[in-house]
Amino acid sequence: MKSKFKNLGNLCCLLMFLFVVSCANGIDDNERFSGGVTNAQLESPEINENCFSTLANSDGSESVKVTWPLVYGAGGYLFSLSIVDDPSNPIVVVKDSIVDGCSVIFDKLEDTKYQVSVKTLGNDNLNNKEAASATVYAYSTLVPAVTIPEGTDIAEYIMANLQSSTQEQGFELLAGKTYTLNGLVDFDLNTVTFRGDKTNRPTVIVGPSGGLMTQGGLKVKFINFDCTEMTQIGILTLSGTPSETISTTTLGYIADGANQSGYVIENPVIFQECNFKNIKNSFLYGNAKNWSLKDFRITDCIVQLDNSSSNPVINLQGASNGLIKNLTIKNNTFYNLSDNSSAYFIRYSNSSNAQPKKIFGNSGNSSTFEISYNTFSKTMNGKDFANNLANTNTLVFNVHHNIFYDTYRLNKLLSSQGKIYTEGNTIFGVLKTVDSSDTTKKDASGNYYAILEDPQFAGPINTAFDLSQDNGGVNFTPAGPVALQYKSGDPRWYGE
Hints:
This protein has 2 domains: 8-140, Immunoglobulin-like (Sandwich); 233-494. The chain contains 5 helices and 36 strands. The longest helix has 9 residues, at 8-16. The chain is mainly beta. Strands 9, 10, 13, 16, 19, 20, 23, 26, 29, 32 and 34 form an 11-stranded parallel β-sheet that branches. A 10-stranded parallel β-sheet has the order 11-14-17-21-24-27-30-33-35-36. A 7-stranded parallel β-sheet has the order 12-15-18-22-25-28-31. Strand 35 (426-428), helix 4 and strand 36 (451-452) form a beta-alpha-beta unit.
């Protein structure tokens, strides 16, 4: 299934702010930069990987600076920049911009393939002719990755090729191809990016024993997963044998005031722009061990469940402690084909031991839930949305602009002592009547936790996800006036 570019207009706008850094104070008739070159056929400058560097911006974003060697006798350069994630449909960001200098700075987008073109211009006063052709260079912000051959079982290949390293590693699936995952891939303590193609996602058929496991950082991007045959509890399972190198003692949290013996994954764990079919149990499973994650994100995904089990979607139950310090769930659709009165969407093990200070110490005594612009349907319709979360004033709940349809007790997510922001949520009950607290309680700004409204989805919404179709053959476009007013729910259903 091909994935379309989202927010294309915004993407281009981000990159149109182009900076030019002069290296020649005007490469024109100034003899200092002619180098004595006259009456010459000029060539375009050589560009290689050493010409690129990353700059940190004051707002936390990054830019790319490309610098090329000075061509003596030049009258400037013609610079072009395109995004070529889909080579057959390049996005032109800058076209034939005249640069009086030899470096350019542009905004750096994550996981993006660029094509940079630099052509030397002639200088009439020195009788120098422009280069016959431009230098074209492919620049990528993707993590370097090993390509897994088509027809290879993913678990076998990765376990045979994974290196024990402190450096981030990458494994990449071929665009549009179908793979099997018949075993458990244990990335162990390694930081790994496991990805497909942004514009033509590969499909992974997960076998009964298939799944992913980590106790290090992991980024899973641009892949479709068919979990129909899967019997493992979690798509992602945290290791059953945690390393003492990442214990709360070894990492210094106990010394900083924590009082729980547990294990912390400090690097981000991210699922981005993936689709999932027929998950029967958990998305994240803590393996009944004392696991905490510093940064866990699900963004821009469609997650189709067929979960009537007692296993929560985000499942840290069965241990004595554990939490997610910073949880981000944004721009997703979660929908379940089964009624479920047994499982929560989020469940920790122990509310008291889920207080951030008890794991992360005095310096890390806070936790943020960013749950925004999602569509939830039947997740879960007969059980509280969350269970065993801490109740402390160091929690922040940015839970806003979501649609909760056939979803029960949102208020169990929102700690009474926490800082709560809930603008633009709607909620509607089918299996169970909406709990009154969800529609009568307000945040500090006067926003109701949620506004009672049937979203009136265009449909269909109760069909298994079709990995061969854009957006899986379902349609959660809302017609409810409140949802439309706030643009609540997953932005993809608004064509964004």
